[in-house]
Specification:
Blueprint (H helix, E strand, L loop, with lengths): L2 H24 L2 H30 L1 H6 L3 H54 L4 H17 L4 H15 L12 E3 L7 E3 L6 H11 L10 E2 L18 E2 L99 H4 L25 H13 L1
Parallel strand pairs: 3-4
Antiparallel strand pairs: 1-2
Helix pairs in contact: 2-4, 4-5, 5-6, 5-7, 6-7
């Protein structure tokens, strides 16, 4: 469509809208109803005239050619019956359209009422009402694709408001060194409140639809949260406390943001997290077994004490990643170029396909070790 045609169309629509707005306020309601009634009567009269006189308008040549009065009357009656059937068909179509429009309007109103009621209950002081509101929103998200984004944003906002992250809180007491634990570090903190975990469950079990921008959960305090078998695609947890979280078999396509997160003692076993942002994260003591980390940004992350058995690090970036003392013997997809940018020591165990010692690279290893030790001492 040409640009000038679109401009004319928009201008006409705007003028019609303004005229309707003016008439709505200036013409009394009784007069509008009277006009609608008169228009309806005129329309019914026109339909009756078409049915009654239609045979003489549409088939006048054929009817005039019939000389027998009885046969002429039969022809006129037959034509009127046909016109009546056509009119009833159009009337039935109009009824169907009107009924469908009414149904859609009613359904839209019901959806709005459900959303409003659930949003009100979500700020209730009763945990039971908040849980019920989360379930209602999850059902609404499934029933109404057009309200999908509004519901997930509301649930994410509830999680952020319920569990904000505070920098001045010490979370060390939730971690315990346990020799019987595979990574040696175990999370022993209190589980999440059930209403917050229910909201998290609703988010990770949401329908897989196009959502556009990231779903913001940054700056949240979610230690011990469960994301097991969850759809974590597009979740943005930057600078969040995720100690002891369970990401077992979690899945994503376009990635999840875990940058600068505290993921100590977290369990990511079996997760599929390609193209995710996990840079400058604290992954000490985390279980990262058989995790798909292809193409992930892992720059500056601390993997000391983490278990990386069977994980795929193909195309992942490891600049300044702390791999001192980490067993990489069963890690797949690593190259010497990747490891040349990481921080390692003589306790780092490399895969057999890369040799037994740290790969040769730029003369920056000592500087990186010194900088890391200075940061720890500070």
């Amino acid at each position: 469509m040409p640009r000038w045609t679109t401009a004319v169309h928009d201008f006409v629509r705007l003028q019609v809208y303004k005229a309707r707005r003016r008439l709505r306020h200036e013409v009394p309601i009784w007069l509008r109803r009277l006009l609608v009634g008169l228009v309806a009567l005129v329309a019914l009269g026109a339909v009756a005239a078409i049915i009654w006189q239609g045979p003489f308008w549409f088939d006048h040549g054929l009817i005039d050619a019939i000389k027998d009065p009885e046969k002429k009357a039969q022809a006129v009656t037959s034509t009127r019956g046909t016109l009546l059937q056509i009119g009833l068909a159009f009337g039935g179509l109009a009824t169907i359209i009107f009924t469908a429009r009414t149904y859609l309007l009613t359904k839209s109103g019901q959806v709005a009422d459900r959303y409003t009621k659930a949003a009100t209950q979500l700020v209730s002081s009763s945990p039971a009402e908040r849980i019920g509101a989360v379930y209602a929103l999850a059902r609404l998200m499934k029933d109404s694709p057009r309200d999908h984004r509004a519901v997930v944003d509301l649930l994410a906002g509830f999680v952020r408001q319920s569990r904000p992250y505070h920098d001045d809180v010490d979370f060390e007491h939730d971690l315990k060194f346990n020799e019987d634990y595979e990574s040696g570090l175990q999370w022993i903190g209190e589980p999440l409140p059930i209403d917050v975990q229910t909201a998290v469950n609703a988010l990770i079990k949401r329908p897989k639809r196009y959502e556009g921008s990231w779903l913001l959960l940054k700056g949240t305090d979610l230690p011990g949260a469960s994301f097991v078998n969850g759809w974590v695609d597009g979740l943005h947890f930057e600078r969040s406390n995720l100690q002891g979280t369970d990401f077992v078999r979690a899945k994503t396509v376009r990635g999840v943001v875990l940058s600068e997160c505290d993921l100590r003692a977290a369990n990511l076993s079996g997760a599929s997290l390609p193209a995710s942002h996990i840079d400058h994260a604290d992954l000490r003591g985390a279980l990262i077994r058989w995790v798909d980390l292809r193409g992930c940004g892992l720059d500056g992350s601390d993997f000391r004490g983490a278990v990386l058995r069977g994980s795929n690090l193909k195309f992942a970036t490891l600049e300044d990643a702390d791999l001192r003392g980490v067993d990489l013997s069963e890690v797949r997809g690593l190259t010497e170029e990747q490891l040349s940018e990481a921080i390692m020591d003589d306790r780092t165990i490399l895969p057999s396909y890369l040799g037994s010692g740290p790969p040769s690279g730029p003369p920056r290893q000592a500087d990186l070790d010194a900088r890391t030790d200075a940061a720890e001492a500070g």
